[in-house]
């Protein structure tokens, strides 16, 4: 993928993480904590490490625009109703990427700052408005609620995951 982008002469790449960067074991119905592979703290630490390493690899060949959004597994508390809005592992990871950038570790990376609301982000690429969200708020059966994501102007491209499938449509 990197070699193909280099062969095509790309100078800039966009890297969006669309949520569920951690599993959040508290969201799984396990009866014994020792059955888990990683604690929440370990998952967040590993997530930071993997994102940082990926950005380092990408910036060796490209200018990188990076952004990430919170998925349902990224919440700090598993119960959606009991959780505090925007209290997520993604906020912690995104904040650490800003710190690493400030420390000079990501000189070719531009980070989209959506820390005020990590559930969505918007950016413009080649004049097209891109909206990135995890996807659990999208009606995946008929996409009848996509217009709910429109803020100031129509979205050209909506990127989301959550449903573990791929579809492209006009």
Structure description:
- By secondary structure, the protein is α/β, with parallel strands linked by helices.
- The chain has 3 helices and 6 strands.
- The strands form 2 sheets. A 3-stranded parallel sheet has the order 1-2-3, covered by helices on one side. It has a 3-stranded mixed sheet with strand order 4-5-6, with no helix packed on it.
- Strand 2, helix 3 (89-102) and strand 3 form a beta-alpha-beta unit.
- Helix 2 (40-59) crosses helix 3 (89-102).
- The longest helix has 20 residues, at 40-59.
Fold topology:
Blueprint: H1 2-7, E1 12-17, H2 40-59, E2 63-68, H3 89-102, E3 109-111, E4 120-125, E5 128-133, E6 157-159
Parallel strand pairs: 1-2, 2-3, 5-6
Antiparallel strand pairs: 4-5
Major pleated sheet = 3 strands, parallel
The shape, in one word, is: globular
- The SSE string, one letter per element, is HEHEHEEEE
End-to-end distance: 26 Å
Helix percentage: 10-25%
Biggest sheet, spatial arrangement of strands: 1-2-3
Beta-strand content: 15-25%
Structural class: alpha/beta
Specify Rg, calculated over alpha carbons.
Answer: 17 Å
Individual helix count? 3
The stretches of 5 or more residues where confidence is low (pLDDT under 50) are none
Number of strands: 6
Mean pLDDT: 87
């Amino acid at each position: 993928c990197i070699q193909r982008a280099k062969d095509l002469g790309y100078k800039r790449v966009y890297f969006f993480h669309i949520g569920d960067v951690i599993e959040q074991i508290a969201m799984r119905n396990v009866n014994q904590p020792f059955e888990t592979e990683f604690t929440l703290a370990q998952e967040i630490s590993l997530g930071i490490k993997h994102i940082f390493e990926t950005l380092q690899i990408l910036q060796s060949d490209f200018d990188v625009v990076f952004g990430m959004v919170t998925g349902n597994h990224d919440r700090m508390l598993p119960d959606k109703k009991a959780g505090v809005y925007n209290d997520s592992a993604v906020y912690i990871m995104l904040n650490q990427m800003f710190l690493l950038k400030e420390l000079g570790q990501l000189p070719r990376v531009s980070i989209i700052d959506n820390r005020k609301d990590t559930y969505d982000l918007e950016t413009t690429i080649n004049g097209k408005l891109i909206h990135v969200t995890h996807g659990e708020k999208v009606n995946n059966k008929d996409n009848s609620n996509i217009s709910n994501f429109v803020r100031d102007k129509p979205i050209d491209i909506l990127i989301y995951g959550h449903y573990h499938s791929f579809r492209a449509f006009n």
